[in-house]
Design a protein that fits this description.
mainly alpha, 9 helices, 0% strand, signal, LprI-like_N
Length: 226
């Protein structure tokens, strides 16, 4: 079980560049140590290791957010506040979606997978905010130039195609009673994307969409599994 959990946590992060930045982060190191402990080898123990890491990353997120607020000019601060509020709303809706999907599964591996999917978005957002703090402190907080429309960016258009494909697949496989939960989660995520796009460059937009594609793909491959 420890081998599975370690592979899950180390290999799932969708944003490789950010994962590399945080490879030596004390939160990740502590989590790996926790997962490897013989007294934490039960499912409950492994979930506890991940939950402790999630709490640690949430604290890191909050700290980075406070630092960013102190660095930003008022107009830019309002944009970031909108992004952060929409991210939190998306996470709240996503928690309900994860509960609905994993309620259709059975087995220890899915308990661990759900804990991991609660952790990773918090970690990713903390790293994104840390990056924004570093750029703002260095005088480079604004994205370079105006973003092209997604339909004019081949990578963005392809990513959105994949997103819609996996969304439809997940929708078709979910129990009918749970489909409104998926609709709400996707609507909240879209609001987050729209609020955050003005704050990132085209690569940053692809990162956000790519992470969502990975989530929907994973959930579509999970729902209904025994």
């Amino acid at each position: 079980m420890r081998t599975f959990a370690c592979a899950l946590l180390i290999g799932v992060a969708p944003l490789a560049a950010r994962a590399e930045v945080a490879a030596a982060d004390p939160i990740d190191a502590a989590m790996r140590t926790c997962l490897a402990r013989s007294d934490m080898s039960s499912t409950a123990g492994q979930v506890q290791c991940m939950e402790t890491a999630r709490i640690g990353w949430k604290t890191a997120l909050d700290n980075a957010w406070q630092q960013l607020q102190a660095e930003l000019p008022p107009a830019r601060r309002k944009q970031w506040q909108k992004s952060q509020a929409s991210w939190q709303a998306s996470r709240d809706a996503e928690t309900q979606l994860l509960a609905a999907v994993f309620a259709t599964t059975r087995g220890t591996m899915y308990v661990l997978a759900e804990a991991d999917m609660q952790l990773q978005p918090v970690r990713d957002r903390a790293l994104a905010l840390r990056s924004a703090v570093a750029k703002t402190s260095a005088g480079g907080g604004d994205p370079a130039g105006r973003l092209r429309a997604c339909r004019a960016d081949a990578r963005c258009e392809h990513a959105m195609f994949d997103l819609n494909r996996y969304y439809r697949r997940l929708q078709a496989k979910m129990p009918a009673r749970s489909r409104p939960t998926l609709t709400r989660a996707q609507k909240a995520w879209t609001a987050y994307l729209n609020a955050t796009t003005p704050l990132v460059d085209e690569r940053g937009r692809i990162d956000i969409i790519g992470a969502r594609v990975a989530t929907l793909k994973r959930l579509s491959e999970t729902v209904g599994n025994d």
